[in-house]
Task: structure prediction
Amino acid sequence: MPNDLVHSRFGFSASRKVGGAVQRNRARRLLREAVRLQVDVIRSGWDLVFVARPAMATARFSEVAEACTRLLRRARLLRSAGTNANDETTGSGADTTLPTGELPHPPA
Result:
């Protein structure tokens, strides 16, 4: 959701469905690191909350990073390579609400 600030803010949540305290903390750490590595290309002016899913208890970092990138791209919150960091408008007039998504899917 837009926050009327010049920077984006991030929240990370993991319920007990993810597992015990160790698994929940690991899931939040994975999410935090995946976002930290992309913070320079995430549009500013947004409040984002990432919710860990139970499958994250056994997920590898690469899976979590790919899922975060996929969700940010789907929400149109990643700046394109040619976008000026100060120009944060999408220009499309499209709905910019965040989609819901699973992080990541458990193996079959």
